[in-house]
Amino acid sequence: MFCPHAGGAASFFAPFTRHFPAGFDLSGVQYPGRQERLDEPLVPTVEGLAEHLVPILRGLATPAVPLVLFGHSMGASVAFEAALRLAAEEPRTPCLVVVSGRAAPSVPRAHRYPETDGEILDDMVKLGGTQAEFARDPELRDLFLPALRNDYGAVARYRPTGEEVLDAPLLCLTGERDPRVSAEAAAAWKNHTSAEFRLESFPGGHFYLADHREAVARAVADWAESPRGGPPSHTGT
Predict the structure, then answer these.
(1) Contacts of 220 by beta carbon, 8 Å cutoff, 6+ apart
(2) Which pLDDT band holds residue 236 (cuts at 50, 70, 90)?
(3) Is residue 146 domain-resident?
(4) Any catalytic annotation for residue 100?
(5) Which residue of 37, 88, 107, 198 has the fewest CB atoms within a 10 Å radius of its CB?
(6) Would you say residue 25 has pLDDT above 70?
(7) Domain residues for 19?
(8) CA-to-CA distance for 108 and 117, rounded, in angstroms?
(9) Could you read off the pLDDT of 79-99 as tens digits, one per residue?
(10) What CATH code is carried by the domain that includes residue 224?
(11) What are the backbone angles phi and psi of residue 145, rounded to the nearest 5°?
């Protein structure tokens, strides 16, 4: 399952699906307050988004088929928190976690999160998540800004202890020129799993994955299909 970034929607991952091998059951998480869920209340915390996700995962997970959670940027934190909660409920459920574009929970924050609408929009454009002309269009901006504002606030308020450890294989993907995630901050994810850890980097910045969809899909599929990971399964959110 795919978990989108701040301000993002499940549709962001649609182009990735054509690059996965047959046998994967692919789906994306649509957070409340966007696209077809536009009329639903926004969820103001990362933990709240994870808690909304757990009942869905509970219905997908089986002892025989591993569940793969893929989260990018804010979505990486959502996926990680959801995996922790699922493991607490169902410790024998096989689960693999893929975190992308996100520093490990144990890494101290090195920057201040934008607070005003102007700062948030400028930051999103700078990171490559939204084209400048899209952000400047008043009608489109008014449509996606509430979710973007909510999600930036959720990330700013997220305060993991830094000691969380998941008993599940963890794959970390990162952009080599990501201004928010250094190589060291990505590698620190190895401290948050007691199982196998792998780090793979790609050319590009924070949204490197948009330029390397096939390579990213292959990395995730190889990880899921490895002898340790077992057969292919649900990927996304």
Answers:
(1) 20, 68, 70, 98, 171, 235
(2) very low
(3) no
(4) no
(5) 88
(6) yes
(7) 2-109+162-236
(8) 25
(9) 999 999 998 987 777 789 999
(10) 3.40.50.1820
(11) -65, -40
Q: Which two tokens stand for residue 228?
A: 């340790």
Structural domain contains residue 121 = no
For 48, 50, 91, the CA distances from 85, given in Å and listed in that order, are 11, 8, 10
Indicate whether 63 belongs to any domain. yes
Which run of H or E residues covers position 51? Answer: helix 46-60
Query: Which pairing describes strands 67-72 and 2-3: parallel, antiparallel, or unpaired?
Result: parallel
Catalytic residue among 11, 27, 73, 226: 73
Whether the Cβ atoms of residue 29 and residue 57 lie closer than 8 Å to each other: no
Length of the chain: 237
- Which pLDDT belongs to residue 227? 66
The tokens for 65 are 């088929």
Q: What's the whole-number mean pLDDT along residues 60-67?
A: 74
Name 91's Cβ contacts closer than 8 Å, sequence gap at least 6. Answer: 167
